[in-house]
Specification:
14 helices, Rossmann fold, alpha/beta, globular
Length: about 350
């Protein structure tokens, strides 16, 4: 397993790497300097070739965690060799103003403080995520809402260990898709989100008043769903047979079998709902926005026609991957705020 830990200068990658005891760690900057002692003074084209050479050299190693950079401002330094090197990419997201303060105190990174750090950070996240979607690799954004300053790295360190030990949204997606393909031979399949798609309200909120800040950054990667699963694990579900949640009749009426629910909601709640609806369901900590997108992609690669329903960014990649994606709007016709700025072309509103 080779894991790339990415993020802007001063994000805290080195601090996190220094605390890893469960895996070999490589320092990318140091290795580049060893490979080319004059690396900092080389022209960009020459530096790029050194980066490629390092990545090719490291391919022979069994596994490690190493820091990396996607870009410096508008200059992209990420190479195809970097992409091929890693099995999983983790991105350390820090509040832009926190980053600016850190950079201002750093002689090495001070010049970056004047840049648009929010735009730079978002651009890197979107580019790395798109690369991973195209190459079927895992991508996770490590954030720390609401402050996003990582005063405590316990959670990202624990998650990094989980990835090292096999946690993978891509592999979970492959497993789900394989089970769907083995279970039903019909040429078309319907995938649907659970909360606010099949139901009128968020089931966890309605059943046990669940509130969280985990999705404030609108990333919806496996790191956020992994942390939510830990919060769910601490909740004791009410024993009553009837849960105070309403299904959406207009969506249920549209679904063509076979129907599969893909949800990051509380597993026990959706086990009950799936039984009532007589639909198959898949859930768990690796059920992220990326996972849903990969499931749709793998089913289409196997020749199935995919119809998908969802309501938010957690379903966005699934809707875009499907042959026909349906976005469930609010009662007033508006869409989820998590989709602001997203390309909704090719998606039908219902």
């Amino acid at each position: 397993m080779k894991i790339g830990l990415y993020g802007l200068p001063s994000a805290g990658k080195t601090t996190l790497l220094e605390q890893i005891r469960f895996a070999p760690v490589r320092n990318g900057s140091r290795l580049l300097q060893e490979l080319a002692p004059t690396f900092a003074g080389l022209p960009e084209r020459a530096r790029r070739e050194v980066r490629r050479r390092l990545a090719r050299t490291l391919q022979a190693e069994d596994g490690f965690v190493m820091d990396g950079h996607y870009a410096f401002g508008d200059t992209v330094v990420f190479t195809e060799e970097d992409g091929a090197l890693y099995d999983a990419f983790l991105y350390l997201y820090v509040d832009p103003e926190v980053l600016r303060e850190r950079m201002a105190r750093s002689e090495k990174n001070r010049a970056y403080a004047a840049l648009d750090l929010a735009r730079w950070q978002r651009a890197e996240i979107e580019a790395l995520r798109a690369y991973c979607h195209g190459h079927e690799k895992d991508f996770y954004v490590l954030d720390d809402p609401p402050q996003n300053c990582f005063a405590d790295v316990t959670e990202p360190l624990s998650f990094l260990r989980a990835v090292w030990e096999g946690y993978s949204c891509v592999q979970f997606a492959r497993t789900c898709a394989a089970e769907i393909l083995a279970e039903d031979v019909r040429p078309a399949v319907t995938l649907t989100d659970g909360d606010r798609t099949l139901t009128e309200e968020d089931s966890s909120s309605a059943v046990f008043r669940y509130r969280t800040r985990l999705f404030d950054g609108n990333f919806y990667t496996g790191y956020q769903s992994w942390r939510q699963a830990k919060e769910f694990h601490a909740v004791e579900l009410p024993a009553q047979a009837a849960l105070p949640v309403r299904f959406s009749p207009k969506i249920l009426a549209r679904l063509e079998p076979p129907v599969y629910i893909l949800t990051s909601g509380h597993p026990e709640i959706w086990k009950r709902f799936a039984g009532q609806l007589r639909f198959r369901y898949f859930c768990g900590s690796p059920m992220s926005a990326d996972t849903k997108g990969f499931i749709a992609k793998f089913l289409r690669q196997a020749g199935r026609t995919v119809t998908a329903y969802g309501d938010s960014l957690n379903d966005y990649y699934m809707l875009k991957q499907a042959d026909q994606g349906y976005l469930v709007t609010r009662s007033d016709g508006s869409t989820s705020r998590s989709l602001k700025g997203r390309d909704l072309g090719g998606i039908t509103f219902v």
